[in-house]
Amino acid sequence: MNLVIGAFTMGLILALLSLGTLISFRMIRFTDITVDGSITLGAAISAVMLMQGHAPLTALLASLAGGALAGTVTGLLHTRFKIPQILSGILVMTALYSVNLRVMGRSNIPLLDVSTLSDPVEKGLFALTDASRILLWGWQIPLKDIAVFLTSLGLCAGVGFLLWRFLLTHFGTALRAAGHNPQMVKAQGVNPHTMVILSLALSNALVALSGSLLAQYQGFGDVQMGIGMMVWGLASIIIGEALVRRGGLGVAITGVILGTILFRLLIAIALRWGMNPNDLKLVTALFVFLALIAPHGAEKILTFFRGGKKRA
After folding, report:
1. What is the pTM of this model?
2. CA 69, CA 198: separation in Å to the nearest integer?
Protein backbone atom coordinates (compact mmCIF):
# COMPACT_ATOMS: atom_id res chain seq x y z
CA MET A 1 0.00 0.00 0.00
CA ASN A 2 2.89 2.37 0.71
CA LEU A 3 4.07 1.71 -2.86
CA VAL A 4 0.66 2.66 -4.27
CA ILE A 5 0.32 5.79 -2.12
CA GLY A 6 3.84 6.88 -3.05
CA ALA A 7 3.27 6.23 -6.75
CA PHE A 8 -0.02 8.16 -6.74
CA THR A 9 1.57 11.05 -4.85
CA MET A 10 4.51 11.27 -7.23
CA GLY A 11 2.14 10.94 -10.17
CA LEU A 12 0.02 13.85 -8.95
CA ILE A 13 3.10 16.02 -8.42
CA LEU A 14 4.48 15.22 -11.87
CA ALA A 15 1.01 15.72 -13.39
CA LEU A 16 1.65 19.46 -13.02
CA LEU A 17 4.75 18.96 -15.19
CA SER A 18 2.63 17.07 -17.73
CA LEU A 19 0.00 19.82 -17.79
CA GLY A 20 2.72 22.35 -18.52
CA THR A 21 4.06 20.15 -21.29
CA LEU A 22 0.52 19.78 -22.65
CA ILE A 23 0.29 23.55 -23.13
CA SER A 24 3.57 23.83 -25.02
CA PHE A 25 3.64 20.53 -26.88
CA ARG A 26 -0.01 20.10 -27.87
CA MET A 27 -1.66 23.52 -27.73
CA ILE A 28 0.94 25.81 -29.28
CA ARG A 29 2.95 23.04 -31.00
CA PHE A 30 6.21 24.14 -29.38
CA THR A 31 8.88 21.53 -28.56
CA ASP A 32 10.10 23.12 -25.35
CA ILE A 33 13.21 21.59 -23.80
CA THR A 34 13.29 24.38 -21.20
CA VAL A 35 11.27 21.95 -19.04
CA ASP A 36 14.41 20.07 -17.97
CA GLY A 37 15.82 23.28 -16.50
CA SER A 38 12.68 24.98 -15.20
CA ILE A 39 11.61 22.03 -13.02
CA THR A 40 15.02 22.18 -11.33
CA LEU A 41 14.71 25.95 -11.04
CA GLY A 42 11.42 25.54 -9.19
CA ALA A 43 13.00 22.99 -6.84
CA ALA A 44 16.08 25.19 -6.30
CA ILE A 45 14.10 28.33 -5.47
CA SER A 46 11.78 26.43 -3.16
CA ALA A 47 14.63 24.60 -1.38
CA VAL A 48 16.63 27.77 -0.76
CA MET A 49 13.62 29.73 0.51
CA LEU A 50 12.49 26.91 2.81
CA MET A 51 16.00 26.63 4.26
CA GLN A 52 15.91 30.38 4.91
CA GLY A 53 12.70 30.00 6.89
CA HIS A 54 10.18 31.35 4.38
CA ALA A 55 6.63 29.99 4.32
CA PRO A 56 6.04 27.04 1.93
CA LEU A 57 3.34 28.98 0.07
CA THR A 58 5.74 31.88 -0.49
CA ALA A 59 8.36 29.47 -1.82
CA LEU A 60 5.74 27.95 -4.10
CA LEU A 61 4.76 31.33 -5.55
CA ALA A 62 8.42 32.28 -6.04
CA SER A 63 8.97 29.02 -7.92
CA LEU A 64 6.01 29.83 -10.15
CA ALA A 65 7.50 33.23 -10.96
CA GLY A 66 10.91 31.72 -11.70
CA GLY A 67 9.44 29.16 -14.08
CA ALA A 68 7.36 31.81 -15.83
CA LEU A 69 10.48 33.93 -16.34
CA ALA A 70 12.37 30.99 -17.85
CA GLY A 71 9.51 30.28 -20.27
CA THR A 72 9.32 33.95 -21.21
CA VAL A 73 13.01 34.00 -22.12
CA THR A 74 12.56 30.93 -24.34
CA GLY A 75 9.60 32.57 -26.05
CA LEU A 76 11.52 35.80 -26.64
CA LEU A 77 14.49 33.94 -28.13
CA HIS A 78 12.15 32.24 -30.59
CA THR A 79 9.81 35.09 -31.49
CA ARG A 80 12.09 38.14 -31.30
CA PHE A 81 15.43 36.67 -32.34
CA LYS A 82 14.02 34.05 -34.76
CA ILE A 83 15.91 31.19 -33.11
CA PRO A 84 14.35 27.76 -33.85
CA GLN A 85 12.11 26.26 -31.16
CA ILE A 86 14.34 23.39 -30.08
CA LEU A 87 17.47 25.55 -30.04
CA SER A 88 15.72 28.23 -27.98
CA GLY A 89 14.82 25.64 -25.36
CA ILE A 90 18.31 24.15 -25.39
CA LEU A 91 19.91 27.56 -24.87
CA VAL A 92 17.70 28.40 -21.89
CA MET A 93 17.98 24.90 -20.41
CA THR A 94 21.78 25.08 -20.64
CA ALA A 95 21.86 28.53 -19.06
CA LEU A 96 19.51 27.38 -16.29
CA TYR A 97 22.02 24.75 -15.16
CA SER A 98 24.39 27.51 -14.09
CA VAL A 99 21.52 29.65 -12.78
CA ASN A 100 20.30 26.76 -10.62
CA LEU A 101 23.78 26.24 -9.22
CA ARG A 102 23.95 29.95 -8.42
CA VAL A 103 20.57 29.86 -6.71
CA MET A 104 21.37 26.76 -4.66
CA GLY A 105 25.00 27.60 -3.93
CA ARG A 106 25.85 23.89 -4.26
CA SER A 107 24.65 20.88 -6.21
CA ASN A 108 22.34 19.49 -3.51
CA ILE A 109 20.28 20.99 -0.69
CA PRO A 110 18.79 18.59 1.88
CA LEU A 111 15.46 19.75 3.31
CA LEU A 112 15.62 18.43 6.86
CA ASP A 113 13.32 19.76 9.57
CA VAL A 114 11.81 22.47 7.37
CA SER A 115 8.15 23.36 7.01
CA THR A 116 6.42 21.98 3.91
CA LEU A 117 3.08 22.61 2.26
CA SER A 118 1.61 19.39 3.66
CA ASP A 119 2.40 20.17 7.32
CA PRO A 120 -0.97 21.84 8.09
CA VAL A 121 -2.78 18.85 6.57
CA GLU A 122 -0.69 16.47 8.65
CA LYS A 123 -1.45 18.44 11.82
CA GLY A 124 -5.15 18.40 10.97
CA LEU A 125 -5.13 14.64 10.45
CA PHE A 126 -3.26 14.15 13.71
CA ALA A 127 -5.85 16.25 15.54
CA LEU A 128 -8.60 14.04 14.10
CA THR A 129 -6.96 10.64 14.62
CA ASP A 130 -4.49 11.29 17.47
CA ALA A 131 -2.16 8.72 15.87
CA SER A 132 0.99 8.77 13.75
CA ARG A 133 -0.38 6.10 11.39
CA ILE A 134 -3.72 5.36 9.75
CA LEU A 135 -5.05 1.84 9.19
CA LEU A 136 -6.13 1.63 5.55
CA TRP A 137 -7.38 -1.69 4.15
CA GLY A 138 -5.26 -3.57 6.67
CA TRP A 139 -2.11 -1.52 6.03
CA GLN A 140 -0.51 0.94 8.45
CA ILE A 141 0.13 4.14 6.46
CA PRO A 142 2.24 6.93 8.01
CA LEU A 143 0.24 10.10 8.57
CA LYS A 144 2.82 12.15 6.68
CA ASP A 145 2.36 10.05 3.51
CA ILE A 146 -1.42 10.53 3.67
CA ALA A 147 -0.98 14.28 4.20
CA VAL A 148 1.36 14.67 1.23
CA PHE A 149 -1.02 12.63 -0.94
CA LEU A 150 -4.04 14.75 0.01
CA THR A 151 -2.08 17.97 -0.48
CA SER A 152 -0.88 16.86 -3.93
CA LEU A 153 -4.38 15.70 -4.88
CA GLY A 154 -5.97 18.98 -3.86
CA LEU A 155 -3.35 21.11 -5.58
CA CYS A 156 -3.37 19.04 -8.78
CA ALA A 157 -7.18 19.05 -8.96
CA GLY A 158 -7.27 22.79 -8.29
CA VAL A 159 -4.66 23.59 -10.94
CA GLY A 160 -6.36 21.30 -13.46
CA PHE A 161 -9.73 22.97 -12.86
CA LEU A 162 -8.30 26.51 -13.09
CA LEU A 163 -6.40 25.61 -16.27
CA TRP A 164 -9.59 24.19 -17.80
CA ARG A 165 -11.57 27.32 -16.95
CA PHE A 166 -8.80 29.59 -18.21
CA LEU A 167 -8.47 27.80 -21.55
CA LEU A 168 -12.21 28.15 -22.14
CA THR A 169 -12.06 31.95 -21.84
CA HIS A 170 -11.63 34.21 -24.89
CA PHE A 171 -7.98 34.73 -23.99
CA GLY A 172 -7.42 31.00 -23.52
CA THR A 173 -9.13 30.24 -26.83
CA ALA A 174 -6.88 32.75 -28.60
CA LEU A 175 -3.88 31.15 -26.91
CA ARG A 176 -4.83 27.70 -28.20
CA ALA A 177 -5.68 29.02 -31.65
CA ALA A 178 -2.25 30.65 -31.94
CA GLY A 179 -0.68 27.21 -32.03
CA HIS A 180 -3.09 25.74 -34.58
CA ASN A 181 -3.61 28.64 -36.96
CA PRO A 182 -1.36 31.70 -36.35
CA GLN A 183 -2.56 33.44 -39.53
CA MET A 184 -6.19 33.30 -38.46
CA VAL A 185 -5.31 34.63 -35.02
CA LYS A 186 -3.32 37.45 -36.58
CA ALA A 187 -6.30 38.31 -38.78
CA GLN A 188 -8.41 38.65 -35.62
CA GLY A 189 -6.02 41.31 -34.30
CA VAL A 190 -4.13 39.08 -31.87
CA ASN A 191 -0.33 38.91 -31.95
CA PRO A 192 0.55 35.18 -32.19
CA HIS A 193 4.09 35.84 -30.91
CA THR A 194 2.68 37.30 -27.70
CA MET A 195 0.48 34.24 -27.31
CA VAL A 196 3.48 31.94 -27.73
CA ILE A 197 5.46 33.83 -25.08
CA LEU A 198 2.56 33.81 -22.62
CA SER A 199 1.92 30.11 -23.27
CA LEU A 200 5.54 29.20 -22.57
CA ALA A 201 5.49 31.34 -19.43
CA LEU A 202 2.38 29.52 -18.17
CA SER A 203 3.77 26.14 -19.19
CA ASN A 204 7.07 26.55 -17.37
CA ALA A 205 5.36 28.11 -14.35
CA LEU A 206 3.43 24.84 -13.92
CA VAL A 207 6.64 22.85 -14.46
CA ALA A 208 8.45 24.89 -11.79
CA LEU A 209 5.48 24.38 -9.46
CA SER A 210 5.92 20.64 -9.95
CA GLY A 211 9.63 21.00 -9.14
CA SER A 212 8.84 22.87 -5.94
CA LEU A 213 6.47 20.15 -4.74
CA LEU A 214 8.89 17.44 -5.84
CA ALA A 215 11.71 18.91 -3.74
CA GLN A 216 9.43 19.11 -0.70
CA TYR A 217 8.24 15.53 -1.19
CA GLN A 218 11.67 14.00 -1.78
CA GLY A 219 13.30 16.05 0.97
CA PHE A 220 16.04 17.58 -1.17
CA GLY A 221 16.72 19.74 -4.19
CA ASP A 222 19.33 18.55 -6.66
CA VAL A 223 20.75 20.25 -9.72
CA GLN A 224 20.47 17.01 -11.74
CA MET A 225 16.82 16.27 -10.95
CA GLY A 226 15.46 17.74 -14.18
CA ILE A 227 17.28 15.44 -16.61
CA GLY A 228 14.81 13.68 -18.90
CA MET A 229 11.72 15.35 -17.44
CA MET A 230 10.48 16.57 -20.83
CA VAL A 231 10.38 12.95 -22.00
CA TRP A 232 8.40 12.08 -18.87
CA GLY A 233 5.86 14.78 -19.68
CA LEU A 234 5.51 13.68 -23.29
CA ALA A 235 5.06 10.05 -22.26
CA SER A 236 2.33 11.02 -19.81
CA ILE A 237 0.51 13.00 -22.50
CA ILE A 238 0.67 10.09 -24.95
CA ILE A 239 -0.54 7.59 -22.34
CA GLY A 240 -3.30 9.98 -21.28
CA GLU A 241 -4.47 10.40 -24.87
CA ALA A 242 -4.53 6.63 -25.27
CA LEU A 243 -6.67 6.34 -22.12
CA VAL A 244 -9.32 8.93 -22.99
CA ARG A 245 -9.14 8.72 -26.78
CA ARG A 246 -11.54 11.55 -27.67
CA GLY A 247 -13.21 14.28 -25.68
CA GLY A 248 -13.21 17.94 -24.83
CA LEU A 249 -10.61 20.06 -23.13
CA GLY A 250 -11.57 18.89 -19.64
CA VAL A 251 -11.28 15.26 -20.70
CA ALA A 252 -7.84 15.92 -22.20
CA ILE A 253 -6.60 17.52 -18.97
CA THR A 254 -8.01 14.65 -16.91
CA GLY A 255 -6.40 12.15 -19.29
CA VAL A 256 -2.98 13.77 -18.85
CA ILE A 257 -3.29 13.56 -15.06
CA LEU A 258 -4.39 9.92 -15.21
CA GLY A 259 -1.65 9.12 -17.71
CA THR A 260 1.01 10.58 -15.42
CA ILE A 261 -0.25 8.57 -12.45
CA LEU A 262 -0.36 5.36 -14.50
CA PHE A 263 3.13 5.98 -15.87
CA ARG A 264 4.52 6.55 -12.39
CA LEU A 265 2.74 3.44 -11.12
CA LEU A 266 4.36 1.36 -13.87
CA ILE A 267 7.79 2.73 -12.92
CA ALA A 268 7.15 2.02 -9.22
CA ILE A 269 6.12 -1.57 -9.99
CA ALA A 270 9.25 -2.06 -12.10
CA LEU A 271 11.41 -0.78 -9.23
CA ARG A 272 9.57 -3.03 -6.77
CA TRP A 273 10.27 -6.04 -8.98
CA GLY A 274 13.99 -5.46 -8.63
CA MET A 275 14.83 -3.10 -11.47
CA ASN A 276 18.18 -1.38 -10.98
CA PRO A 277 17.52 2.35 -10.26
CA ASN A 278 20.39 3.15 -12.62
CA ASP A 279 18.22 1.78 -15.44
CA LEU A 280 15.33 4.12 -14.66
CA LYS A 281 15.94 6.46 -17.60
CA LEU A 282 16.37 3.50 -19.95
CA VAL A 283 13.08 1.97 -18.82
CA THR A 284 11.40 5.38 -19.08
CA ALA A 285 12.57 5.67 -22.69
CA LEU A 286 11.28 2.14 -23.34
CA PHE A 287 7.85 3.01 -21.95
CA VAL A 288 7.77 6.13 -24.14
CA PHE A 289 8.66 4.02 -27.18
CA LEU A 290 5.89 1.54 -26.40
CA ALA A 291 3.39 4.34 -25.80
CA LEU A 292 4.29 5.88 -29.16
CA ILE A 293 3.95 2.71 -31.20
CA ALA A 294 1.01 1.17 -29.30
CA PRO A 295 -1.77 3.18 -31.02
CA HIS A 296 -0.35 2.45 -34.48
CA GLY A 297 0.20 -1.21 -33.61
CA ALA A 298 -3.37 -1.60 -32.36
CA GLU A 299 -4.69 0.12 -35.47
CA LYS A 300 -2.78 -2.26 -37.74
CA ILE A 301 -4.05 -5.29 -35.82
CA LEU A 302 -7.65 -4.05 -36.08
CA THR A 303 -7.21 -3.34 -39.78
CA PHE A 304 -5.78 -6.83 -40.31
CA PHE A 305 -8.71 -8.55 -38.59
CA ARG A 306 -11.28 -6.35 -40.30
CA GLY A 307 -9.67 -7.13 -43.63
CA GLY A 308 -9.72 -10.83 -42.81
CA LYS A 309 -13.44 -10.70 -42.10
CA LYS A 310 -14.09 -8.94 -45.38
CA ARG A 311 -12.13 -11.52 -47.34
CA ALA A 312 -14.07 -14.29 -45.61
Report:
1. 0.92
2. 10
